[in-house]
Design goal:
Length: 266
Protein backbone atom coordinates (compact mmCIF):
# COMPACT_ATOMS: atom_id res chain seq x y z
CA UNK A 1 0.00 0.00 0.00
CA UNK A 2 1.31 3.46 -0.88
CA UNK A 3 0.85 6.51 1.32
CA UNK A 4 -1.60 7.95 -1.23
CA UNK A 5 -3.69 4.78 -1.01
CA UNK A 6 -3.57 4.92 2.78
CA UNK A 7 -4.63 8.56 2.68
CA UNK A 8 -7.71 7.78 0.52
CA UNK A 9 -8.76 4.93 2.82
CA UNK A 10 -8.35 6.99 6.00
CA UNK A 11 -10.24 9.96 4.59
CA UNK A 12 -13.09 7.63 3.64
CA UNK A 13 -13.18 6.23 7.18
CA UNK A 14 -13.28 9.73 8.67
CA UNK A 15 -15.93 10.96 6.25
CA UNK A 16 -18.08 7.95 7.10
CA UNK A 17 -17.84 8.51 10.85
CA UNK A 18 -21.12 9.22 12.68
CA UNK A 19 -19.49 12.00 14.69
CA UNK A 20 -17.26 15.00 14.01
CA UNK A 21 -13.78 13.59 13.41
CA UNK A 22 -10.22 14.91 13.21
CA UNK A 23 -6.93 13.24 12.34
CA UNK A 24 -3.26 14.05 12.58
CA UNK A 25 -0.90 11.46 11.12
CA UNK A 26 2.85 11.70 10.59
CA UNK A 27 4.42 8.61 9.09
CA UNK A 28 7.64 8.04 7.15
CA UNK A 29 8.09 11.72 6.39
CA UNK A 30 4.50 12.18 5.23
CA UNK A 31 1.83 14.16 7.07
CA UNK A 32 -1.94 13.78 6.74
CA UNK A 33 -4.21 16.24 8.51
CA UNK A 34 -8.01 16.19 8.52
CA UNK A 35 -9.71 18.96 10.51
CA UNK A 36 -6.60 18.80 12.69
CA UNK A 37 -7.00 22.32 14.13
CA UNK A 38 -10.64 21.91 15.11
CA UNK A 39 -11.11 22.25 18.87
CA UNK A 40 -12.50 19.41 21.00
CA UNK A 41 -13.06 18.66 24.66
CA UNK A 42 -9.73 17.08 25.49
CA UNK A 43 -11.03 14.45 27.93
CA UNK A 44 -8.03 12.48 29.28
CA UNK A 45 -5.66 13.59 26.52
CA UNK A 46 -5.01 16.70 28.65
CA UNK A 47 -3.01 14.35 30.89
CA UNK A 48 -0.20 14.32 28.29
CA UNK A 49 0.85 17.98 28.72
CA UNK A 50 0.40 17.52 32.49
CA UNK A 51 2.97 14.70 32.30
CA UNK A 52 5.22 16.89 30.17
CA UNK A 53 5.12 19.70 32.74
CA UNK A 54 5.87 17.27 35.58
CA UNK A 55 8.98 16.07 33.75
CA UNK A 56 10.03 19.65 32.99
CA UNK A 57 9.73 20.61 36.66
CA UNK A 58 11.83 17.59 37.65
CA UNK A 59 14.55 18.66 35.24
CA UNK A 60 14.42 22.20 36.64
CA UNK A 61 14.88 20.86 40.17
CA UNK A 62 11.45 22.05 41.33
CA UNK A 63 10.10 18.54 41.76
CA UNK A 64 11.59 15.27 43.01
CA UNK A 65 10.00 12.20 41.46
CA UNK A 66 10.62 10.21 44.68
CA UNK A 67 8.95 12.81 46.95
CA UNK A 68 6.00 11.36 48.81
CA UNK A 69 2.68 13.13 48.25
CA UNK A 70 0.00 12.81 50.94
CA UNK A 71 -3.30 11.35 49.76
CA UNK A 72 -6.49 12.06 51.71
CA UNK A 73 -9.73 10.14 51.25
CA UNK A 74 -11.24 13.32 49.83
CA UNK A 75 -8.65 13.25 47.03
CA UNK A 76 -10.05 9.98 45.71
CA UNK A 77 -12.61 10.33 42.94
CA UNK A 78 -14.32 7.82 40.68
CA UNK A 79 -14.41 6.75 37.05
CA UNK A 80 -11.08 5.54 35.61
CA UNK A 81 -8.14 4.59 37.79
CA UNK A 82 -7.27 2.48 40.82
CA UNK A 83 -6.30 5.03 43.47
CA UNK A 84 -9.92 5.29 44.57
CA UNK A 85 -9.75 1.61 45.68
CA UNK A 86 -6.33 1.79 47.32
CA UNK A 87 -5.70 2.26 51.07
CA UNK A 88 -2.47 4.20 50.58
CA UNK A 89 -1.94 7.44 52.53
CA UNK A 90 0.92 8.64 50.31
CA UNK A 91 2.68 7.81 47.07
CA UNK A 92 5.82 9.04 45.33
CA UNK A 93 5.22 11.59 42.57
CA UNK A 94 6.50 9.21 39.89
CA UNK A 95 3.82 6.65 40.82
CA UNK A 96 1.09 9.27 40.53
CA UNK A 97 2.45 10.18 37.08
CA UNK A 98 2.40 6.55 35.99
CA UNK A 99 -1.15 6.04 37.30
CA UNK A 100 -2.29 9.20 35.49
CA UNK A 101 -1.15 7.83 32.11
CA UNK A 102 -1.14 4.02 32.33
CA UNK A 103 -4.62 3.61 33.85
CA UNK A 104 -5.79 7.20 33.26
CA UNK A 105 -6.29 7.65 37.01
CA UNK A 106 -8.39 10.77 37.65
CA UNK A 107 -7.49 11.02 41.36
CA UNK A 108 -3.77 10.93 40.56
CA UNK A 109 -4.30 13.51 37.81
CA UNK A 110 -6.01 15.96 40.15
CA UNK A 111 -3.22 15.56 42.69
CA UNK A 112 -0.70 16.31 39.93
CA UNK A 113 -2.66 19.40 38.82
CA UNK A 114 -2.56 20.73 42.40
CA UNK A 115 1.14 19.92 42.72
CA UNK A 116 2.23 21.47 39.41
CA UNK A 117 -0.25 24.34 39.23
CA UNK A 118 -2.70 25.06 36.41
CA UNK A 119 -0.79 28.17 35.34
CA UNK A 120 2.45 26.21 34.98
CA UNK A 121 0.73 23.48 32.98
CA UNK A 122 -0.86 26.06 30.67
CA UNK A 123 2.49 27.83 30.28
CA UNK A 124 3.99 24.55 29.06
CA UNK A 125 1.01 24.01 26.75
CA UNK A 126 1.89 27.39 25.22
CA UNK A 127 5.61 26.54 25.18
CA UNK A 128 4.80 23.41 23.20
CA UNK A 129 2.91 25.48 20.62
CA UNK A 130 -0.41 23.81 21.47
CA UNK A 131 -2.39 26.87 20.39
CA UNK A 132 -5.83 25.24 20.64
CA UNK A 133 -5.32 23.64 24.06
CA UNK A 134 -6.02 24.77 27.62
CA UNK A 135 -6.46 23.23 31.07
CA UNK A 136 -9.30 24.95 32.96
CA UNK A 137 -10.67 22.28 35.28
CA UNK A 138 -9.79 19.14 37.19
CA UNK A 139 -10.99 15.68 36.22
CA UNK A 140 -14.69 14.99 36.85
CA UNK A 141 -15.36 18.61 37.83
CA UNK A 142 -18.78 18.75 36.21
CA UNK A 143 -19.75 21.95 37.98
CA UNK A 144 -16.83 23.66 36.23
CA UNK A 145 -18.07 22.32 32.88
CA UNK A 146 -21.56 23.66 33.61
CA UNK A 147 -20.08 27.07 34.38
CA UNK A 148 -18.28 27.07 31.02
CA UNK A 149 -14.82 25.93 32.12
CA UNK A 150 -13.54 22.88 30.26
CA UNK A 151 -10.31 21.42 28.91
CA UNK A 152 -9.73 21.66 25.16
CA UNK A 153 -7.31 20.47 22.51
CA UNK A 154 -6.92 19.62 18.82
CA UNK A 155 -5.45 16.70 16.90
CA UNK A 156 -2.51 18.83 15.70
CA UNK A 157 -1.80 19.98 19.28
CA UNK A 158 -1.71 16.44 20.63
CA UNK A 159 0.57 15.47 17.74
CA UNK A 160 2.94 18.26 18.82
CA UNK A 161 2.88 17.09 22.45
CA UNK A 162 3.64 13.48 21.48
CA UNK A 163 6.50 14.51 19.19
CA UNK A 164 8.07 16.79 21.78
CA UNK A 165 7.51 14.28 24.57
CA UNK A 166 9.33 11.47 22.81
CA UNK A 167 11.84 13.06 20.44
CA UNK A 168 11.85 16.84 20.89
CA UNK A 169 14.36 19.30 22.31
CA UNK A 170 12.45 20.60 25.33
CA UNK A 171 13.10 17.56 27.57
CA UNK A 172 16.30 15.64 28.21
CA UNK A 173 16.74 12.03 27.14
CA UNK A 174 15.81 10.55 30.54
CA UNK A 175 12.56 12.53 30.63
CA UNK A 176 11.67 11.56 27.06
CA UNK A 177 12.31 7.93 27.95
CA UNK A 178 9.91 8.18 30.91
CA UNK A 179 7.26 9.89 28.75
CA UNK A 180 7.48 7.16 26.10
CA UNK A 181 7.63 4.28 28.59
CA UNK A 182 4.37 5.36 30.25
CA UNK A 183 2.66 5.36 26.84
CA UNK A 184 4.05 1.89 26.07
CA UNK A 185 2.67 0.61 29.40
CA UNK A 186 -0.85 1.87 28.57
CA UNK A 187 -3.57 -0.49 29.76
CA UNK A 188 -6.38 0.78 27.48
CA UNK A 189 -5.75 -0.84 24.10
CA UNK A 190 -9.30 -1.09 22.74
CA UNK A 191 -9.06 1.73 20.17
CA UNK A 192 -6.04 2.46 17.92
CA UNK A 193 -4.02 -0.64 18.97
CA UNK A 194 -7.00 -3.05 18.69
CA UNK A 195 -6.08 -4.47 15.27
CA UNK A 196 -2.38 -3.65 15.44
CA UNK A 197 0.22 -6.42 15.53
CA UNK A 198 2.11 -5.87 18.77
CA UNK A 199 4.57 -8.61 17.84
CA UNK A 200 5.86 -6.38 15.02
CA UNK A 201 5.13 -2.90 16.38
CA UNK A 202 5.98 -1.05 19.58
CA UNK A 203 2.68 0.60 20.45
CA UNK A 204 2.30 3.44 22.93
CA UNK A 205 -1.02 5.27 23.25
CA UNK A 206 -3.32 7.40 25.41
CA UNK A 207 -7.10 7.33 25.18
CA UNK A 208 -9.76 9.81 26.24
CA UNK A 209 -13.51 9.69 26.45
CA UNK A 210 -16.50 11.66 27.66
CA UNK A 211 -20.19 11.29 26.81
CA UNK A 212 -20.30 11.52 23.01
CA UNK A 213 -16.49 11.78 22.81
CA UNK A 214 -13.94 9.11 21.80
CA UNK A 215 -10.24 9.96 21.38
CA UNK A 216 -7.01 8.04 21.00
CA UNK A 217 -3.46 9.00 20.13
CA UNK A 218 -0.21 7.16 19.96
CA UNK A 219 3.34 6.65 18.83
CA UNK A 220 3.93 3.48 16.85
CA UNK A 221 7.58 2.46 16.52
CA UNK A 222 8.82 -0.07 13.98
CA UNK A 223 12.41 -0.56 13.00
CA UNK A 224 13.98 2.87 12.68
CA UNK A 225 10.61 4.53 12.02
CA UNK A 226 7.90 6.06 14.19
CA UNK A 227 4.33 6.98 13.31
CA UNK A 228 2.41 9.60 15.28
CA UNK A 229 -1.37 9.18 15.15
CA UNK A 230 -4.11 11.30 16.75
CA UNK A 231 -7.84 10.70 16.21
CA UNK A 232 -10.43 12.91 17.93
CA UNK A 233 -14.16 12.29 17.57
CA UNK A 234 -17.15 13.97 19.23
CA UNK A 235 -20.89 14.51 18.62
CA UNK A 236 -21.38 10.74 18.85
CA UNK A 237 -24.81 9.31 19.65
CA UNK A 238 -23.22 5.85 19.87
CA UNK A 239 -19.77 5.60 21.50
CA UNK A 240 -19.08 2.25 19.83
CA UNK A 241 -19.28 3.82 16.37
CA UNK A 242 -16.50 6.23 17.38
CA UNK A 243 -14.39 3.41 18.78
CA UNK A 244 -14.96 1.42 15.60
CA UNK A 245 -13.76 4.31 13.41
CA UNK A 246 -10.59 4.64 15.51
CA UNK A 247 -10.03 0.87 15.39
CA UNK A 248 -10.35 0.88 11.60
CA UNK A 249 -7.86 3.74 11.30
CA UNK A 250 -5.43 1.75 13.43
CA UNK A 251 -6.03 -1.32 11.27
CA UNK A 252 -5.27 0.51 8.02
CA UNK A 253 -2.12 2.08 9.45
CA UNK A 254 -1.04 -1.35 10.67
CA UNK A 255 -1.50 -2.67 7.13
CA UNK A 256 0.53 0.20 5.68
CA UNK A 257 3.37 -0.28 8.16
CA UNK A 258 3.57 -4.05 8.06
CA UNK A 259 2.77 -4.46 4.36
CA UNK A 260 0.05 -6.93 5.29
CA UNK A 261 -3.26 -6.99 3.47
CA UNK A 262 -5.08 -8.64 6.38
CA UNK A 263 -4.33 -7.45 9.93
CA UNK A 264 -4.44 -9.85 12.84
CA UNK A 265 -7.85 -10.77 14.25
CA UNK A 266 -8.99 -10.40 17.84
Amino acid sequence: MTFEELKIILLEELAGCNGRASLFLEIEGEILEYNSNQVYQSASLIKLPILFEALRQMEAGHLNKESQLAIDEGDKIGDTGVLQAMKVKQLPVVDLMSLMIIVSDNSATNLMIDLLGKDSINATISRLGMSHSILQRKMLDFSAIQSGLDNYTSAADIGLCLKEGVKGDLLNQDSKSIFHTFLLQQQFKEKLPFYMDDTLLEIGNKTGELPGVEHDCGIIAYGENEAIIVVLIDELSDPQSGKSTIQQIGKHINSFITGLSTPIDH
